[in-house]
Amino acid sequence: MCVSRLEAPIEDSPFLLDRVVIESHADIQAIQAICDYVYIDVKYQKSFSGAIPTRNTEARKHLSFARSFNQTANTFQRTGNLIKTVMDDIRFGNQFSVSAVKQAVSECVDKVLENPDTMLLLTQIKDQDQYTAQHSMNVCILSILLGRELNFSMEDLNKVGFCGLMHDVGKMKVPLEILNKPGSLEDYEMDIMRKHTLYGRNVLMSARNVYPGAVDVAYDHHEHLAGTGYPRGLNKTTLSIFTKLVAVVDTYDAITSDRVYQRGKPHLMALGILVKGMGQQFEANYVTQFINCIGFYPQGNLVELSSGEVGLIVEQNKADRLKPKILLIQDGNKNPIEEKILDLSLNIADASGKRYGVKQVIRPQDCGVDLAKYYQDGKFTKEYAVVG
After folding, report:
1. What is the DSSP letter of 122?
2. What is the pTM of this model?
3. Which of 98, 224, 387, 388 is the most exposed place for a label (fewest CB within 10 A)?
4. β-pairing verdict for 302-305 and 2-6
């Protein structure tokens, strides 16, 4: 077989020329060590060795973000650990490092711009026991993603990311027995919980070199455009752009997350709630752009297909948002299977001869899927067979 071009830069190649004739298994191993794919010279192959046999060879490929997944995930995890440390410092009355938070947000902005699909996927790997810190991290990433959709400058992306990461720091001043209460809050407990906006404002105002807009977001992210929110009943004329933006993504992540007192709702149901609140609670343009940004089937969501099989959304299709790429993980009886990639845009038929389609978005817990374990087991960097 003749390789006409390598994916790897020429300086990384162990071969003297970029055109390589593969003659042994050792040649294959050498190429695998430096790149994931190559370009084959089909004309050369046909002229000197005959056609490449492909009919009986199962097609395999990596997920689109596989090569950069680990590096992006490391940034996500580092920032998540930092916000936990920051929140612990606030809870115990210590000063937190504003510069460290800004640096972490800057790294997140870079990763969102480089690999938005991976960052969106990582926001779906949730841990109920770490809700507040993880929620803050997710709001940071989703705020940056929405800001990117709105063509924010780099400076504003860093600012809105900082606002998202720090919007709920006031909850560290709420007593744990109220913050982590498994049932509904009593009226007096709800009054205390709602004071987290005031506490957050005070925490950020007492810190040096905090972006002033973050103080507004911490204080006002539960206000509504119609003036029906809290703590001050402000309306749309007095709310900042960043406050309106964070309010949208904050609500979305809260709705879709499991908490001690409620189960998270599926993605499409959360979008429906945002749409219903357009104009009264949320800025309509931000809701619309948020839906454009994350799509109807964002990475990390589970779907049940028309065949009854279950799959994980791993890549969106920008040309047709209703036909994403899916990693099949369960058969029609909800039993685990060897994972395969299914591209709905290819209009492939299932085992019964009917064309594949999405039946519904489901919660991982409803079919016994642990996304965190998928992450830990390196499932997002493996190579998979392709259906069809």
Report:
1. H
2. 0.83
3. 388
4. unpaired
